[in-house]
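User: Hey, quick favor. My workstation is busy. Could you predict this chain's structure for me?
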Amino acid sequence: MRLTSLMYAFDERQSGLIFPWILGSMGLHMRNSKTSHFTNRGSHFGNEWRVFSHKAKEHLTLFSDIELCYWLLFLEFDRSVHSFSLHPPARMVLNPSPRKLHLTAELMLKNGELEWHLLCGSNQVESGATADASALALKNDVRLKIFTPEVMVPVKYKICSLLKAAACLSAGKHYTLPPTLMSNLHYYLGQKQQGSLGSLIDYFQDYDVSLVLYGVVRLFAEGILDVEIAPYFFSRCTRWTRI
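Assistant: No problem, here it is.
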């Protein structure tokens, strides 16, 4: 079966301006998004996103552009994360008076450890507003990670490429790849260990290119394959490495 709707996303000649069209057609919906402001200047946040998580196998609602970027960078495509619960039920803090603590995510890492995430503004950290989370994490012997917009600025160059990968996975969520393709992909990657997407596509010329690239993105999302995060994620010259 051809995934012809993916080909626009795979066209390395297109600029980042195509994302509103891609995301809408592939199941990632935004309302008046200002994500481009974040990727360009890191100063504007807002909007609500409805996305499909390949890792969680469910649709998620993200309540801001900054939460979308956090999900892409530190949950969905983080190889150390085995599973996660976004916006988990509130935990209770009892002292000095009972109140609810809302975490952004609870994670199970691949090494078996539990981790808590809290997404907030820098002013909240500076004012001590995260003290309850830190104290409760210490009491429960859980590692707490606090994320602010400033934490994401050094890796903001990854966001557009990861958006493409997420859109691809959303578009293909109802497709079953041919078993022979996946088997041959695993064999090829194991034999070569590293290479370019162009060489890989040429080797699998008997298959529709969008199916091959969808298989590559799935392996990338599952932590089996590392793909170069370049401006053009699906460029023929993009490098890959078998993990």
